[in-house]
Design brief:
Largest sheet of chain B: 2 strands, antiparallel
Strand content of chain A: under 5%
Structural class of chain A: mainly alpha
Helix content of chain A: over 70%
Number of strands of chain B: 4
Radius of gyration of chain A: 67 Å
Order of helices and strands of chain A: HHH
Radius of gyration of chain B: 22 Å
Distance between the termini of chain A: 172 Å
Distance between the termini of chain B: 60 Å
Largest interface: A-B, 48 and 61 residues
Shape of chain B: globular
Number of strands of chain A: 0
Shape of chain A: rod-shaped
Number of helices of chain B: 7
Helix content of chain B: 55-70%
Order of helices and strands of chain B: HEEEEHHHHHH
Structural class of chain B: mainly alpha
Oligomer: heterodimer
Number of helices of chain A: 3
Strand content of chain B: under 5%
Largest sheet of chain A: none
């Protein structure tokens, strides 16, 4: 049934010939094909395609140069970081140096101060010693006088008189024996 | 069976060329026909589309520009891979060829539109143009060395007795097959579409009993439509890539 259908619908009966094989329109088809295809070719090859290739090339160049720029900046950043690290290390070394120097200076000052104070003390000690020995010497002479006076007074009680020179001699002898 | 008027269902009717404007060049009839009109429409659409898409030439492309550049890259890659760097000289030609055929095929998919590529005179002329160009380029590039194409190197001498005639025949068949392939695909596809669409109408007209069959025919019509879109794109591609392959032969005839 469908086949019969196909036959009846597909065969146009007494219609015109198969259109693609008709000859009357062929010159016109060729003419317009030549004109329109040439026009399209010229429009595309002269104006549109160069513009597109320009754009695409420009984009490729731009991307390439942007990548270069990025690489350059990256290098710059790396270098800057290196420089920073270097300077940091230098600063650290300098700081250590300064601290060392300050410590040394302080130690030196401390030492000199200590020495000065020691010297001072030693001097004071010496003066004090001198005074003490002088006082002791003085005291000893006073003791001798007191002994002479005491001896004089004692023998005076016994009613004896002795010259001060004798008394002094006797006291000295006694002190030496003691 | 009571059929609808045959005219409405006639699947050949869609290929009928009708004059829109009577024109004569001397004795030659160069009337502007519906075929010329739809061809003009295709050309105008290609120019409009690519013209608008490329006008601004922005570094960050708009959607339209992206699609156009995709087409550009597609054809450029095709030419480069099939015909080598030297083939890029013919890039504008292949580009024109592809989009001329592609738009003609796609316009043909619109109901009531005329398919310019369904006429053998058009596809045949395009194919002949390609082959003539291949021959001219081949002779200019290689001189008589172009004919080495018919005797590929590296075969024992007695093979050439068979091989050379085969190569010559295959070369002569090129314009024929190139033109016929596109013509036949478009013609057959559109006849099928029209037939199945006609079935639906005729079957429903024939009575309620036939409605399920009409539904089947309708489904077939939808499927065929999808297939025809594929064919429309594919045939444009096939035509363009074969052009590249033939150009490659012309450019590199010596190391075939």
């Amino acid at each position: 049934m469908i086949l019969a259908f196909l036959a009846e619908t597909a065969v146009p009966g007494a219609e015109a010939a198969f259109p693609p094989f008709e000859t009357w329109h062929m010159p016109s088809q060729l003419f317009w094909l030549a004109v329109l295809f040439t026009a399209l070719y010229l429009a595309l090859s002269r104006y549109i395609l160069p513009k597109m290739s320009d754009t695409i090339e420009k984009r490729a160049n731009r991307v390439a140069s942007d990548l270069d720029e990025a690489a350059r900046l990256n290098n710059q950043a790396t270098e800057a970081q290196k420089a920073l690290e270097l300077r940091l290390a230098q600063a650290r070394a300098k700081a250590r140096d300064t601290a060392e120097k300050a410590r040394e200076k302080t130690e030196a000052e401390l030492a000199s101060e200590t020495a000065r104070v020691d010297a001072d003390l030693a001097k004071k000690l010496e003066t004090a010693d001198a005074r003490i020995s002088k006082l002791r010497a003085d005291a000893m002479t006073n003791v001798e006088q007191i002994a002479v006076d005491t001896a004089d007074a004692m023998i005076a009680r016994f009613g004896v008189r002795a010259s001060p020179a004798d008394l002094r001699k006797a006291v000295s002898a006694a002190l030496e024996q003691a | 069976m009571n059929l609808m008027p045959a005219i409405a269902l006639d699947p050949i009717k869609q290929f009928q060329v009708t004059k829109w404007l009577d024109l004569k060049l001397g004795n030659i009839d160069i009337s502007f026909t519906n075929a010329s009109g739809f061809m003009l429409l295709g050309v105008v659409l290609v120019i409009t589309f690519f013209g608008m898409a490329s006008r601004k030439g922005e570094l960050v492309p708009s959607r339209l520009q992206s699609v156009a550049e995709l087409g550009y890259g597609f054809i450029a890659d095709m030419v480069r891979s099939a015909a080598g760097e030297e083939g890029l000289k013919f890039f504008p030609f292949v580009f024109t060829l592809f989009f001329f055929i592609f738009f003609a095929n796609m316009i043909g998919m619109v109901p009531y539109a005329f398919t310019t590529t369904s006429h053998i005179i058009v596809t045949g002329a395009l194919a002949l143009t390609v082959i003539l160009m291949v021959i001219v380029v081949g002779l200019m590039k290689n001189g008589l060395g172009f004919f080495k194409l018919f005797a590929p190197s590296g075969a024992p001498w007695y093979i050439y007795i068979i091989l050379t005639p085969i190569e010559i025949i295959s070369f002569l068949a090129r314009p024929l097959t190139l033109g016929l392939r596109l013509f036949a695909n478009m013609l057959a596809g559109h006849i099928m579409l029209k037939l199945f669409a006609g079935f639906v109408v005729a079957l429903i007209g024939a009575g309620a009993v036939y409605v399920p069959i009409a539904a089947l025919a309708f489904g077939m019509g939808v499927a065929l439509n999808a297939l025809e879109f594929l064919v429309a794109g594919l045939q444009a591609y096939v035509f363009a890539i074969l052009t590249c392959v033939y150009l490659n032969d012309a450019l590199h005839a010596d190391h075939h």
